[in-house]
Write a structure and sequence with these properties.
Blueprint lengths: L1 E7 L16 E5 L2 H11 L2 H4 L14 E5 L9 E3 L3
Antiparallel strand pairs: 1-2, 1-3, 2-4
């Protein structure tokens, strides 16, 4: 699985109040979409956000999600502070 780096683009949105993560995060996933989905599950948004609300981690206008090939291949996970 590839490593993806997710960065905030629009940190002022109210939807960030439902996310425990509000900084750059790296995930290991087979696709960028799955990397975003992992963040929704692991950032608290799935627990605290309303079902009708879209997580800022899933919104391409709110966060970027880019492959980080220099970090190699890893098992599916979410990790911080590289």
């Amino acid at each position: 699985m590839s490593v993806y780096r997710l960065d905030l683009i629009e940190p002022s949105l109210l939807s960030w109040q439902f996310s425990d993560e509000k900084d750059t995060v790296w995930t290991c996933a087979p696709t960028a979409k799955r990397a975003r989905d992992l963040l929704v599950i692991n950032s608290g948004f799935a627990k605290y956000g309303a079902k009708r609300d879209q997580s800022p981690w899933q919104d391409e206008a709110t966060t970027s999600c880019a492959a980080a090939p220099s970090l190699g291949q890893r098992a599916a996970s979410v990790f911080r502070g590289l």
